[in-house]
Design brief:
283 residues; alpha/beta; TIM Barrel; two-stranded antiparallel ribbon; 18% strand; globular; lyase activity; lyase
Length: 283
């Protein structure tokens, strides 16, 4: 079971700017924990997300020498991918591809067809740089716009991504709409149809529903999970104020119960949790 901690997702919507030095200290703390991957930042327009305008400066301050954790950066277009590709210490370049035409337009100001063109060019870019693209199928568990959604549609998108050579696909709960009934069928079908692709779950949850969601994905074959310590961030469009990112500490709890070996540094985890509270509970 792989854990991807996503401080970028926790920070991006935070109402007050988190100082660059504080971000660096927190991310270096997370790097010492031993997560598989750290979704650390994003190369997007500062006009879109001011909180992440310092991603390059943050990257320069990270101590990667003593950490086996790999870095993932999110981009919204080819320009962002080209910037990420200039930093060889970034292993993964993540791109949100929506299965909802409405949300793709709202999120990236492009159609799904145009977004697929970007995915194609990003895949070619990664082939040249030795990096790897991670495609997030946003609105992966339904959408509020009335756009079509089904496990079959997710399969069609994955078929196209597979043809391009994309090896990691994460179904993403963009608005907190996921339930076990919408989580299990896609993972069950996709993991069977595309055994060579690594499927991930980027779930949002309320405090009361986290376990049933993780359980549904796990039992359906998913072994890659995104989370954020404390469950901060993740769901600005949700109607429920309690909905946020899947708390990484809950994922650790679940993995431990299942006998999954995570090889985490528990002392470093406790220190990272303290830094997390200083940032998010202190603002």
């Amino acid at each position: 079971m792989k854990l991807i901690d996503c401080p970028r997702d926790a920070m991006q919507g935070w109402p007050t700017f988190i100082p660059t030095t504080q971000k660096i200290a927190y991310l270096n703390g997370l790097l010492r924990v031993g997560f598989d991957t750290l979704d650390f930042g994003s190369f997007v327009s500062p006009k879109a997300i001011l909180q992440l305008a310092d991603t390059t400066e943050v990257l320069d301050g990270l101590d990667l020498a003593q950490s086996g954790t790999r870095l993932l950066a999110i981009v919204a277009n080819l320009r962002g991918a080209e910037t990420a590709a200039q930093h060889p210490q970034i292993r993964y370049i993540g791109f949100p591809l929506s299965v909802s035409e409405t949300f793709q337009q709202r999120n990236t100001n492009k159609s799904i067809a145009e977004a697929f063109d970007d995915v194609t060019r990003m895949q070619e870019l990664c082939a040249r740089t030795g990096q790897q693209q991670v495609v997030y199928l946003s609105m992966g568990f339904g959408n509020p716009y009335g756009d079509p959604w089904s496990p079959e549609i997710l399969g069609e998108f994955t078929q196209k991504l597979d043809a391009l050579g994309v090896g990691i696909v994460a179904l993403s709960d963009t608005i907190g709409a996921s339930t076990p009934a919408t989580i299990a069928p896609p993972f069950r079908e996709l993991t069977a149809a595309f055994p060579h692709i690594e499927f991930g779950a980027h779930l949002h949850t309320t405090p009361a529903t986290w376990r049933e969601k993780v359980q549904a994905a796990y039992e359906a074959g998913c072994r890659r999970f995104d989370g954020a310590l404390g469950g901060y961030g993740g769901c600005p469009m949700a109607a429920d104020a309690l909905t946020g990112n899947m708390p990484t500490e809950r994922l650790i709890e679940f993995a431990t119960e299942k006998g999954e070996e995570l090889h985490l540094n528990t002392e470093a985890l406790a220190e990272a949790m303290q830094l997390n509270q200083e940032i998010f509970a202190g603002h």
